[in-house]
Design goal:
The termini are far apart. The protein has a single domain, classed as Cytochrome Bc1 Complex, Chain D, domain 2, CATH 1.10.760.10. Strands 1-2 form a two-stranded antiparallel sheet. Residues 1-45 have low confidence and may be disordered. It has 10 helices and 2 strands. β1 and β2 form a beta hairpin. By secondary structure, the chain is mostly helical.
């Protein structure tokens, strides 16, 4: 049964619809079948960790996986990623507006689409980014709801997804 669920999750992710669709429905097939040890190992200490972890499991794990290692050739890892460990504002922009086109993470090239998640509240984005930035071996600073609100306001008129080149121009 576990193999069938994992196979279905991979098929959805490789079709490019897993990130946007499974996260909207709730827990993905991949997160339902993942070992509890992976989840426990990924938990950071802190008050907002459980909310951030819950948002991660509901929205992000379909593509980036519960262990944040991504899917080779399809979706980049968040564990040890320069994006996760880089400027908070860049991660906020990616979550709010999405990311398209080629990206290189840990020497691997990916060319897929991450959908925008503007429907998440500032508190949810803050919690999930803090969770990712302090889990999976990442050691970046926390993200506050105020930071999210500032970036949301500054990018409110943006209608398209970011590219890596555009994000690099922001800093």
């Amino acid at each position: 049964m576990r193999t069938r669920n994992l196979g279905a999750a991979l098929a959805i992710a490789l079709l490019g619809v897993g990130c946007g669709k499974a996260g909207e429905r709730g827990q993905s097939a991949a997160s339902q079948s993942a070992p509890a040890a992976q989840t426990a190992a990924a938990q950071p200490a802190g008050a907002g960790a459980s909310q951030g972890q819950a948002v991660f499991q509901r929205v992000c794990a379909t593509c980036h996986q519960l262990n944040a290692q991504g899917l080779p050739g399809a979706f980049p890892p968040l564990a040890g990623s320069p994006f996760a460990n880089g400027p908070a504002e860049r991660m906020i922009r990616i979550v709010l507006n999405g990311l398209m086109g080629p990206v290189e993470v840990k020497g691997q090239r990916f060319n897929n689409v991450m959908p925008p998640w503007k429907t998440l509240s500032d508190a949810e984005i803050s919690a999930v980014l803090t969770y990712v930035r302090s889990s999976f071996g990442n050691t970046a600073s926390a993200v506050t709801p105020e930071q999210v609100a500032q970036v949301r306001s500054a990018t409110a008129s943006r209608a398209s997804m970011w590219t890596v080149a555009e994000l690099e121009q922001q800093h």
